[in-house]
Each structure stands twice: as C-alpha cells, then as structure tokens.
Design brief:
single chain, alpha+beta, Uridine Diphospho-n-acetylenolpyruvylglucosamine Reductase, domain 2, Uridine Diphospho-n-acetylenolpyruvylglucosamine Reductase, domain 3, Alpha-Beta Plaits, 4 domains, 7-stranded antiparallel sheet, 5-stranded antiparallel sheet, 15 helices, globular, FAD-bd_PCMH_sub1, FAD, oxidoreductase
C-alpha cells in the first residue's frame, strides 16, 4: 500500500476537518480526538523510529461502531491502525500515513465466565493483568505473561501472538484462544470456533487473525481459556560464565524438573537494572550471563533435587554462584532482575532484534550472532536477554545519546542484514514474538519464502480487498 493510496497527510486543513466531522457523525457517540497530544500518544507504540501522523483517534465502545469505522474507511479510502496498550516493539501500531487510529481502550469488559469449560469472554481492550487477576479471583490462572502485562491489551496480544516468560511450559497466546469475533476489512462481523476444543470442519480461519497484526481485520471479542494455577513457584537465579553453559544448565534441569520458565540475561543487562531500577544484585559474584529457572516446588524432595542439580552444575563449572527464592517476596524480587530490563533500557531508544531458532541450535547460533555484532558495533552497548528455554533471544543495541536517531537506525539496519543472514542459515525467525510491523517487514524474506509472502498477500485481499486494515504492516501490497 503506497502513500498515494492514503493521501490524508496531503489534505488541506479544511478537507481534514470535514473528513473528521463526517467520521465523528458516523461513530457517535464514540469519542474522536484530533489534538496534537492525542495524535502523538495513540499514534505510536513503544518503538521510536517513526514519527506518528494519524488523521484522528477514534474510541469505539461497541462492535457496531467498529463496523461503522471500517465502512467509513472504505468509502473515503482511509487506512485504519489498531491501538491497544501500545506496548508493541515492531511499529505494528504506528500511524504514519494519515490513518485513523482505532483505540480499543473502552472495549474492556470481561463477561460470560464458564467454570466448567474454564473460559471467559474478553473485549479487545482488556488489560492482560486484568485477565490474570480475574482468573486468580476464580481460583484459576491465565499463563501468558510478560513485562508489559500491566498495560498490554488482550486484543493486541492476540494480534501479535504474544509469548513471554512462560512459553516453555504454557505456549504462546494462540494456545489460549478458544474463539474470536472479528470485523474484517469489509466491515463484516465473523465469529470463529465458539469455544470448542475440537472443531475439524475445514480451514481454521481464527488462526489467520492470531498474529495477523490487524492486517486482515480487528479483533472485537475473544474467548480465552484458563487453567489451574501453579503451586509453590520457586526461582533459581544462577550466575553462568559462558553462553554455552546456559544451555547445559537448561538440559540438566529440564531432564529432571518440569520448568515453568527458563530465562537468561547478560551482566550488562543486570547492571542497568541494578543502577537505574533500584533492584538489588541477587548475589555478589558477577558473571557474564545469568540463567533464571522457575518451577513448582511442591515438596522438600523437589527442593532437594533442585539443589543437587545446582551443585552438579557448579562441579562442572557451568555455574559460579546462585540463589533460590524462599518465599513469594523473594521470588518477585528475583524476577525483577529479568522483568525490569525492557523498561529500564527504553531510555536509550534500543534497536531490538527479536530472533529465534530451535533450542538445540542456540549455542552455535548465538556465538555467530555475537561475533558479528561485537565486530560491527564496537562503540555501541549491547544488551542480551530472552526466553532462551524456547530458543528466543532478544538482542538490544543501545543508542548513544549524541548519535542522531537516523544515523543510529541506518547503522543498525546495515548490520541487521548480516544478523538475519545467520538467522536464515539456521532456519530461524527474524521476529519470534514481537511481530513484523514496519520495523521488520524489509527482512521478511529471511524467514518467509516469496511464495509464502504472495499467499499471505492473497489472504489479505480476501479479508481486506481495499487494503484499509493496518496498511503497510508486514508487507506492502
């Protein structure tokens, strides 16, 4: 989709005002905002590499209003960009072409809880933490969790198939979606799956919208699955001298204990959190990397086994030091060492590479990546962390304060191609969980074949024939 097809940025002030007035009348009594603060706030996500330039922000409260917005967009050839908690890291919710931003802040109700089926119906604007708390109040558990759970929206999680820290045990967001209602690019309302566990009746269209980044249509309701809560969660935080040792620790523990999480981060990442987020060091010893393991410690036998495995890792030289949580307060404090990284480093406008390979290839893969990055970015600070238990690595390059944003982005893009060539060689993904958006679409061919991309474009044309739904994201038509 080209800029010429959505020319709102080129409209005169009078024509823009007339278009907004028609939109306001179309969706009344839904709120429509056009002031500069609103355009800047709702026109972007956590990425800072594109300047937002939306036409207006609309806040529907009902499905019918979403349908009205889509029909208005088709009639007036205006692009639409979905907006949730705006925590995305791929510029998938950035409006740069004079689009209308559709914010789901007010579609945030939870209803129709079914204790037998362990399902609950959510509006797209339900905050992830709100769903987690609701599940807890019912004696159940919603396991998709990440640092932005206090602000991210369920609709956005589904649109990007969010992963997070519990994937090794519970899988991705798509594993917890029992049904969806969506409004397509034609304004049609579709309902998928209706909460069924088994439904072998042809193509599973629901899955196209999970991870579709709003390019096929907007999620307006989701039926989410819940499960039993984990019991007596315990964390082991281990200091590891070499990256290869992290995988040896994973193999050692995973063969004996069912893990609910396995994370890693570098000393540089921990140092930032300690200095800027007020988090205490877990132990005095500094090591190049840290491995964080979480498991259900249901009895003393499991605790003893965990300590035996820890001692085995120390004897083999894979672990230098470590600490195990003794209560919930200690568990929460240890998790801050990992969970506070993203927010802490955001002040440096990091260029993020969210890459993945199968777990068995991680050591060799990361060694090659680290060699290239260290060689090409000698003057940049590199922060490593990620969900290494499922092969997902987060490479963060911090922008020097004195370096202009455009020059920083240009240098990062150049080396990213070399990084993605390694990703391609290992059969990996250039975007493990953050989506493609604007930031990664130029690199899509490193993971998807030309034939796949053409098929995806064909699917988009079926659901969004006029190309109004989140135009320019994932690929250009």
């Amino acid at each position: 989709m080209t800029r010429e097809q959505f020319p709102q940025n080129a409209l005169s002030p009078e024509d823009r005002a007339e278009l907004v007035a028609q939109l306001t009348a179309c969706v009344a009594p839904a709120r429509v905002l056009t002031d500069d603060d609103a355009l800047q706030t709702w026109g972007r996500d956590w990425t800072r590499f594109h300047d937002p330039a939306p036409l207006a922000i609309v806040f529907p409260k009902a499905v019918e209003q979403v349908q009205a917005v889509v029909r208005f967009a088709r009639e007036h050839t205006v692009g639409l960009v979905p907006s949730g908690g705006r925590t995305g890291l791929s510029a998938g919710a950035v409006a740069v072409r004079g689009e209308i931003v559709v914010s789901f802040d007010h579609m945030n109700t939870i209803s129709d809880f079914n204790a037998v089926d362990r399902t609950v119906v959510c509006g797209p604007g339900v905050v992830t933490e709100q769903l987690q708390q609701f599940a807890e109040d019912q004696g159940l558990y919603y396991p998709v969790d990440f640092a932005s759970s206090g602000s991210s929206h369920v609709g956005g999680n589904i649109a990007t198939n969010a992963g997070g820290i519990k994937v090794i045990r519970y899988g991705m967001t798509r594993d917890w979606v029992a049904g969806l209602k969506v409004v397509t690019g034609t304004g049609e309302l579709l309902e998928f799956n209706k909460g069924l566990l088994k439904n072998n009746t042809g193509y599973d269209l629901q899955q196209l919208f999970i991870g579709g980044e709003g390019t096929l249509g907007f999620i307006v309701e989701a039926t989410m699955r819940l499960t039993r809560p984990p019991r007596d969660l315990t964390v082991l935080l281990l200091g590891v001298p070499e990256m290869d040792d992290v995988m040896k620790v994973l193999d050692t523990f995973q063969n004996s204990i069912d893990l609910t999480a396995f994370e890693f981060f570098s000393e540089k990442a921990l140092a930032k959190v300690v200095e800027h987020a007020g988090v205490q060091r877990p132990f005095e010893t500094e090591t190049a990397f840290y491995a964080m393991l979480e498991f259900e410690c249901l009895n003393e036998s499991i605790a003893d086994q965990a300590m035996q495995l820890f001692e085995q890792c120390v004897e083999n030289g894979w672990v230098i030091d470590g600490v195990m949580s003794q209560n919930q307060a200690q568990l929460a404090n240890l998790w801050r060492c990992r969970e506070d990284i993203s927010e802490t480093i955001s002040r440096w406008t990091p260029y993020k590479n969210d890459i993945s390979v199968v777990v068995s290839k991680v050591p060799a893969f990361l060694t090659e990546i680290d060699t290239v990055v260290s060689r090409e970015y000698p003057d940049f600070e590199i922060i490593w962390f990620g969900h290494i238990g499922d092969g997902n690595l987060h490479l963060n390059i911090l922008k020097p304060e004195t370096l202009p944003r455009e020059e920083f982005l240009s240098r990062c893009n150049k080396v990213s191609r070399w990084v993605f060539e390694i990703v391609q060689q290992y059969g990996g993904s250039v975007s493990a969980e953050h989506g493609v958006g604007l930031l990664k679409k130029d690199y899509l061919t490193y993971t998807r074949s030309i034939a796949e991309i053409e098929l995806m474009k064909g699917v988009k044309k079926v659901f969004d024939p006029d190309g109004v739904m989140n135009p320019g994201k994932i690929f250009d038509l």
